[in-house]
Amino acid sequence: MKKNxxxxxxxxxxxxxxxxxxxxxxxxxxxxxxxSEFFQEKGNRxxxxxxxxxxxxxxxxxxxxxxxxxxxRDGQVYEFPYALNDEISNITAKVHGRNLSLDEHLDHYPxxxxxxVKKGEIVFERYNxxxxxxxxxxxxxxxxxxxxxxANLVATGKxxxxxxxxxxxxxxxxSDWDTxxxxxxxxxxxxxxxxxxxxxxxxxxxxxxxxWFKWAATIGLFDNExxxxxxxxxxxxxxxxxxxxxxxxxxxxxxxFVVSRIVENVMNQPMNEVVSQHMWQYMGANNDGFVAVxxxxxxxxxxxxxxxxxxxMAKYGMMLTPSAPKLAGHxxxxxxxxxxxxxxxxxxxxxxxxxxxxxxxxxxxxxxxxNAFQFDAIFEDGDLFKSGVGGQGLYISPSKDLVVAxxxxxxxxxxxxxxxxxxxxYFDK
Length: 429
Prior knowledge:
By secondary structure, the chain is α+β, with helices and mostly antiparallel strands. Helix content is about 35%, strand content about 15%. It has two domains: about 5-65, no CATH class; about 65-429, 3-Layer(aba) Sandwich (Beta-lactamase). It has helices spanning about 5-15, 25, 30-40, 55-60, 100-110, 145-155, 180-185, 210-220, 230-235, 255-265, 270-280, 310-320, 325-330, 335-340, 345-350, 355-360, 415-425; strands spanning about 70, 90-95, 100, 110-120, 120-125, 135, 290, 305-310, 370, 375-380, 385-390, 390-395, 400-410. The termini are far apart. InterPro entries: Beta-lactam-related, Beta-lactam/transpept-like, Diverse_Enzym_Activities.
């Protein structure tokens, strides 16, 4: 790849405070062609999950690299009013042993955009490498779209959380999924192998011989000639039990894929339509969203590839706050569904796996954290957080009527979530 492509984007991943270029304004058509060719080269598709210079463009333009399904908006756009609070920029958090203010952090780390919404009003915003009209990949933040929909089905009695997964996905009958409950799957605690970070050899996302990688290849995420014509559920059916369920938070996008299929089978609608009809059309969205679709099976891949503007991700979070009716006159997510999520999970399982341990370091002032229904952190005060690879995040506080949303192009260790938690505590004062 020519040096000028990397140089035009290099400031995004630099640790030096400088004016950061707007990715979609500085990337030329020639550079876009080179980036596209890079990801088309054999073995390179797997690299799109990592913060390469090429990925900084791809993460803001995922529809150039994957087929997509639309998540349609409707109704009047909710225009955020502003009530800017200068104190927020001075809130500090400890990141890698250093105490920095939010503004200092945003100067020095590869954060694309950071937004704080309180009572339906923007109280802080910062765009570094993207415009407010640009769409960005949520990565694993998108997992909560499936988790919230499943929680709604549980709360309304349409899904039995203690039933085996195979009750709702017939293709998994006769496999070890007969022994896994819907609840443990929603909470990333199946006890099955093929996890994303918690295998004995921590190379699930890069090693073509790993079962997790093989599953990802069946949905078109990665290249793997050994897969032949296996379908995703064929590979998932080969997973086996290695530990009791419910005892360890083992992060696994396969669980989200399974949750999505449960929702689809019960609703008899594709996930992108479910999200559109239950949330996106009622939240005063600025734009349609989109989600990547697998070439085999046509599955919408919410575990990895929701895409929207930063404001629309914040509006999605607002649907779980008291300000939801401001968006488009809709009551938002039912309070009973929110309570179900807040009261689920097992704090004793939390820090026994990779992601729980990582986030425990980010939330250094908290204890008793749990995960449930695809949220990575549920705090004792009922606040909710979901993270995504590369440093994406959505923090929701129903009690404080607060949402913090951010997109990054880093390695996932920036700890913007530490600032989100400290901002929430600031509003406790």
